[in-house]
Design brief:
Shape: elongated
Distance between the termini: 43 Å
Helix content: 25-40%
Oligomer: single chain
Structural class: alpha/beta
Strand order of the largest sheet: 14-15-18-21-24-27-30-33
Number of strands: 56
């Protein structure tokens, strides 16, 4: 007799275990489910097996091959284009089925007596016999009613609770005559329960139900998978064990070494070629695969460990699943119900909390506490905060659930009853996230002043006037259109200190949230004077009469990122002619290439209208690109130099603040005006803090990040920058083109090189050790000064959020810049390749020690 083994399923509800292996190949007692089914068929003298495959078919074919190693003959039928359904895939192999045959699902564990079921089928002269069983909760299965002769009278596929009429369910095991396949269309999707069996019932074909005695478990979800493992280990189902039973309830494979001081409480299964270290504690219900290494003092309780896992010293795994090749480092914890996908790594002292699922090939950084499923990203960082707040993929990393918990974590670091502001950009996703953050804040007793859709310069400017302890701003990330950015600031409007960020991270990862009583839940109010408050401060720091007499014309491009902007209203009050382009809102942020097209259009409009200048505003009012009267763009280092030149012309003997990677044109301009330059780390918070703490600062920032006017408020403000430019152009009686012509001629170029996280620290150390101390500036990254050429340097700056390093070279000599960038790019690439080669060698040696 032949059997059709339906093995095409992807096992969506078993993810992440089935992300890289089909469900029938998921192991039970270190052997694939499909192997247990093959053994069952063989015990009942069914040795010709046709396996229907669809999802990752090569995994099963490579394992069983022709079946001879398992005492059967295997044939494979692959559904190439689309799955054909449970019945369609059998119809697809109908030419191989010329006598009574068995159909059995590839995702269940059972020890039913198939011989008795086949005898029942033949005795009843049945065309189709369904093997049935009784279950306590039939909601997830097809329910069947039979008469006193066991003939099927009614069935319903996966009923709701109100539709249940029996506890007798379909197990997915069928005994069929080949004639029934004539009722199925060829090469079309068809299902036994939805298509074939209703047809047979309607046509009066003899169809019976055989109620089997014995064990059956549909391994359709993770809980069922764990249940099947434990039932097999505790001998509740008859399956074959692949290892010798060394003592009652303890199965151990060949060439496995267990330290004498290890403690094992049975039943336990340990595979072949395993190494169990000193003082390891293995609790009952644990199943350990082949080639597993467990370090000293580790604790493993009721866990399922697949082949090739490496568990570090003092690691702790409790009732979890660690798939193929998982690495759990020293003192890391994986708690109850968690699942770690294949080839993932849990860093030293990291913790994967209850019921968290980690998809394959993910990295949990050392010390990280993971409370949420890790599906799309590559790394679970130890830190929530990056260089500028909390960021992540929109509605994937930054979800409503995440935002509620983040709001609760932030609020838990504040005194109960405190007030904070919440503001956002105008996009729907920002509204969604802000509402979730507000809910989290209210739940811990924090009152919210909801500024709703407000440009971030306004939000920062009004914070000191509202008697709040801080604020949040939510927007699409200015540099990554598929990411969200959540920024936190203090009572002055400055980004939070690293110490406060750490407090929020601690509350978030430990879930250390206080819960307010009903009467203590936070309130939400909606301030109405935000624009007026900003306008007052805005006007206070400008020479309004100068701007009024200028009769300036400015073209403002909002690049579809804002609507109802207030800047044109403010400029109109000053008598300026403001022409606004692209002020409607697009829910998707324009890409970089889209913005370049809009910038080119802006240049043509400025030239055609004979405007004094044009400006493209971005980053929710923080950043800008200028366009001069001829339509040419001014951006980046040239924009930095131009703004500083104009401010210092009007304010000599002042201080300017720039990031460490800004060009040396800043120093050259400062020398012209007897002024001072303060350089900071290349991040927004450092710039804000330096502008706030240094005296006599007239401007800070850069063309890349935006410009800070500390007398106005502590954040970046493109709107005030535009108005200030118009004032200065009038006072200096010059055009942007004329001022640009006076800027120092400095060559400043930058490139980016990939550098893995694990190599960054070693690279920085090597750079410091290999250059004289007097040539180094370690403000941020490693800046190497050329003592032979003034204002010449190369900066190697690790990226705060990506596995990259940025190289920036600066000099009056273009040839030196080009040559130095080539030299250090090669230096970094060679160093990275060398370090990765060493890591690969260490990995190979570790693997060799496991297999010995």
């Amino acid at each position: 007799m032949r059997a059709v083994l339906m093995a095409g399923g992807s096992g969506t509800r078993l993810r992440p275990l089935t992300s890289d292996v089909p469900k029938p190949m998921v192991p039970i007692l270190n052997r694939p489910i499909a192997e247990h089914i093959v053994n069952l068929l063989k015990r009942h003298d069914i040795t010709e097996i046709i396996a229907t495959l669809h999802y990752l078919p090569d995994v099963m074919r490579d394992y069983f091959q022709d079946g001879s190693d398992f005492g059967v003959q295997m044939t494979y039928a692959v559904e190439e284009d689309q799955p054909l359904g449970t019945a369609g895939c059998v119809k697809n192999v109908s030419e191989l089925l010329d006598e009574t045959f068995v159909v059995i699902s590839g995702d269940s564990i059972t020890d039913f007596d198939l011989t008795a079921a086949i005898a029942f089928h033949k005795a009843r002269r049945s065309q189709a016999t369904l093997v049935l069983t009784h279950v306590p909760n039939p909601v997830d299965f097809g329910v069947v009613i039979t008469d006193d002769q066991q003939r099927i009278r009614r069935f319903l596929e996966k009923p709701s609770s109100s539709e249940i009429f029996s506890d007798t369910v379909n197990t997915g095991i069928y005994i069929l005559e080949p004639e029934v396949l004539q009722y199925l269309p060829a090469n079309q999707e068809a299902d036994f329960s939805k298509d074939l069996f209703p047809t047979l019932l309607a046509k009066g074909e003899p169809m019976y139900g055989y109620i089997a005695e014995g064990y059956w478990c549909d391994v359709g979800h993770l809980e069922a998978y764990r249940e099947a493992q434990y039932d097999a280990l505790y001998r509740r189902v008859h399956v074959e064990y692949g290892y010798e039973e060394r003592s009652p309830g303890l199965w151990i494979g060949q060439n496995t070494r267990i330290d004498p001081s290890a403690k094992i409480k049975t039943p336990v299964m340990i595979g072949t070629n395993c190494r169990i270290g000193p003082r390891v504690s293995i609790g009952s219900g644990t199943i350990i695969g082949d080639n597993v290494t467990i370090g000293a003092d580790a604790e493993i309780k009721r866990s399922i460990i697949w082949n090739g896992a490496i568990l570090g010293e003092e690691s702790r795994l409790l009732a979890c699943v660690a798939a193929r090749g998982v690495r759990v480092d020293r003192r890391a914890h994986v708690l109850e119900g968690a699942v770690v996908g294949s080839l993932s790594s849990v860093g030293e002292e990291a913790q994967v909390n209850q019921s968290v699922r980690i998809w394959p090939s993910k990295i949990i950084e050392p010390g990280a506490i993971l409370n949420m499923n890790l599906i799309w990203g590559h790394v679970a960082h130890r830190n929530l905060f990056g260089q500028r707040g909390v960021s992540g993929l929109a509605n994937i990393d930054i979800t409503p659930e995440f935002a509620v918990r983040l709001g609760a974590a932030y609020g838990s670091t504040l005194k109960p009853g405190s007030h904070v502001t919440v503001s956002r950009d105008q996009r729907s996703i920002s509204r969604m996230v802000s509402r979730s953050l507000i809910a989290g804040l209210m739940s811990v007793g924090i009152n919210v002043q909801n500024l709703e859709a407000t440009a971030i310069p306004l939000a920062r400017a009004v914070v000191p006037t509202l008697a709040v302890v801080g604020g949040l701003h939510i927007r699409l990330h200015p540099e990554r259109c598929d990411h969200m950015l959540i920024e936190f600031f203090d009572e002055h409007g400055i980004n939070l200190s690293k110490a406060h960020e750490k407090k929020i991270e601690g509350a978030y990862f430990k879930e250390d949230f206080r819960r307010a009583q009903v009467a203590e839940i936070g309130q939400v109010v909606y301030p109405t004077q935000v624009v007026d408050l900003y306008s007052i401060v805005f006007e206070r720091h400008l020479d309004i009469n100068t701007i009024r007499t200028s009769n300036s014309k400015v073209v403002i491009d909002y690049a579809y990122a804002v609507s109802g902007a207030i800047l044109p209203q403010l400029l109109a009050k000053f008598g300026c002619d403001a022409v606004v382009l692209n002020a409607s809102l697009s829910q998707l942020a324009p890409s970089i290439s889209d913005r370049e097209v809009l910038l080119d259009q802006l240049g043509h409009v400025v030239e055609a209208l004979k405007a004094n200048l044009g400006v493209q505003v971005s980053a929710n009012g923080e950043q800008l690109i200028l366009v001069d009267e001829s339509g040419s763009a001014i951006r980046g280092e040239q924009l930095t130099a131009l703004i500083i030149h104009m401010l210092l012309t009007d304010n000599p003997r002042s201080t300017v603040v720039v990031p460490v990677n800004a060009s040396s044109a800043v120093e050259q301009i400062a020398r012209r005006h007897d002024s001072t330059v303060v350089r900071t780390k290349a991040n927004p918070t450092a710039l804000m803090e330096a502008c706030h703490s240094n005296r006599n600062v007239v401007v800070g920032g850069s063309g890349e990040m935006g410009f800070i006017f500390p007398q106005l408020h502590p954040g970046f403000d493109a709107m005030f920058c535009i108005a200030k430019l118009m004032e200065m152009l009038t006072l200096q009686d010059r055009s942007l083109g004329q001022i640009r012509a006076d800027l120092p001629r400095v060559c400043h170029r930058s490139i980016t090189v990939r550098c893995p996280w694990t190599v960054k620290g070693a690279l920085m150390r090597r750079l410091v050790e290999s250059h004289p101390a007097e040539t180094l500036d370690l403000t941020d990254g490693v800046k190497i000064l050329n003592s032979q050429q003034p204002d010449s340097w190369i900066l190697i700056l690790p990226d705060a959020g990506e596995p990259l390093v940025h190289l920036a070279a600066n000099s009056n000599d273009r040839g030196w810049v080009d040559e130095t960038l080539r030299e250090y790019r090669s230096y970094v690439q060679d160093f990275v390749n060398h370090e990765l080669g060493m890591e690969e060698l260490d990995h190979d040696q570790s693997l060799e020690s496991v297999l010995l």
